[in-house]
Design goal:
alpha+beta, HIT family, subunit A, 21% strand, globular, binds adenosine monophosphate
Length: 117
């Protein structure tokens, strides 16, 4: 069983922000922004590439609720998922990072961004 399934099953503790029947949001253990929340489906899905439209529809509404709950719905946030090896996905259970509480940097100039274009 993967680590996020163990969190869903309460075998590993987590700092819950919000949950409903199908989704769970909890604070990332190693935050990379003042607000860093992980949003996951309770049912195991490996990654975004395997996610169904139904899962994504529910996750969208849930993520918007989470943003309101932690007060970044107006100030803004970044919502990202790392998909697979090249995407840098470490935990193989679909999750979205909600990052906020600070103006997020975005490096448009990095030469690696242009190499394959
Ligand atoms: P990714 O690299 O996209 O797979 O992100 C995995 C994220 O899970 C990282 O930001 C980790 O800090 C976070 N993480 C790993 N284990 C836990 C845990 N037990 N509780 C909360 N966050 C975790």
């Amino acid at each position: 069983m993967c680590i996020f399934c163990k969190i869903v099953n309460k075998e590993i503790p987590n700092n819950t922000v919000a949950e409903n029947e199908n989704f769970l949001a909890f604070h990332d253990l190693y935050p990379k922004a003042p607000i860093h929340i992980l949003i996951i489906p309770k049912k195991h899905v490996d990654c975004f590439q395997d996610a169904s439209p139904e899962t994504m529809a529910g996750l969208t509404t849930f993520a918007q609720e989470v943003a309101r709950k932690v007060g970044v719905d107006n100030s803004g946030y970044r919502l990202i998922t790392n998909n697979g090896e090249d995407g840098g996905q470490e935990v193989k259970h679909l999750h979205f990072h909600m990052l906020g509480g600070v103006k997020m940097p975005w490096d448009h100039t990095h030469e690696d961004n242009h190499k394959s274009l």
